[in-house]
Design a protein that fits this description.
Length: about 260
């Protein structure tokens, strides 16, 4: 019997063009239901590339040069996972929504893609569950009529409506102001726990990691250099990059670090 989980196995990504360069090198991670795995690293370390490779949506200029995805032990095509098995919440919610379509259209499209009918009660309950007090009033709205925080709530609601057991959250709070960031983090933590989601949390913010993650993988120039339970990583980081990320976090939030 194979343990349930979504495994990214030895994913490698290379740039195309005359002088190919590896931007992801043998990346292996396993997500399990009910647990949050944070993938952290400096800007340009390959965090977003890992997500795009796992979902089969690499941008032009990049190609998958090795590795595979396994779901509960069986090989799985990244494209087949999108939506049904893995939902995503991405940074910059404004660019994730079609500006010409209302929130109702977006909900309808998500349900249609999964072969589900519109279920008014479920849509209402899911939107209320992410803190939208009057779902009927937001459904006719277009993205330009909504704040970034509200759009991010709708994106989380769309992820929950899909009933996918895994969630990729790529810098879910980066483009939001501080107060809204805290609310969205609470919401994500609550949704993850209530639905028992296996979550891959991509962030450069160690405060977000401390708040949400069970386990942390540290990425440096396309390679995982350390993986540890969150408490171990914060208290006894082994790799210099892990130490650097934690020190940077402490110097921002703790004016007189104890260490
Ligand atoms: N389309 C592309 N073509 C060529 N190189 C790319 C492309 N997209 C990303 N890269 C390169 O791949 C590396 C990893 O980039 P990636 O965006 O995955 O990093 P990241 O850790 O998510 O950074 P950030 O935190 O700034 O979003 C970088 O060196 C980047 O320049």
């Amino acid at each position: 019997m194979t343990a349930p989980g979504l495994a990214l196995q030895a994913l490698s990504v290379t740039t195309t063009g005359p002088a190919p360069r590896r931007v992801l090198d043998d990346l292996s991670l396993t997500l399990v239901p009910g647990r949050v795995l944070a993938l952290v690293g400096a800007s340009g370390s390959g965090k977003s590339t890992a997500v795009s490779a796992a979902l089969g949506v690499l941008s032009p200029g990049l190609r998958l040069s090795g590795g595979e995805i396994r779901l509960d032990g069986r090989p799985a095509a990244p494209k087949a996972l999108r939506g049904r098995i893995v939902a995503s919440v991405l940074q910059n919610p404004r660019s994730a929504f079609n500006p010409l379509r209302s929130m109702r259209d977006h909900v309808q499209e998500t349900l249609r893609a999964l072969g589900r009918d519109w279920d008014a009660r479920r849509v209402h309950d899911t939107l209320s569950g992410v803190g939208i007090e009057t779902p009927e009033q937001i459904l006719p709205l277009y993205p330009f009529e909504m704040s970034g925080g509200m759009l991010q709530r709708v994106m989380i609601a769309l992820a929950l409506l899909s009933e996918a057991p895994y969630l990729f959250a790529d810098e879910p709070t980066t483009d939001l102001d501080l107060v809204v960031q805290a609310r969205i983090l609470d919401l994500l933590a609550d949704a993850q726990a209530r639905h028992g989601l296996g979550m891959l949390l991509i962030t450069h913010d160690m405060g977000v990691v401390a708040r949400l993650a069970d386990e942390v993988a540290v990425l440096d120039r396309g390679r995982i250099v350390e993986q540890a339970p969150v408490g171990d990583l914060f208290h006894a980081p082994r790799h210099p990059v892990s130490r650097m990320l934690i020190d940077a976090h402490l110097s921002l939030y703790d004016p007189e670090p104890a260490r």
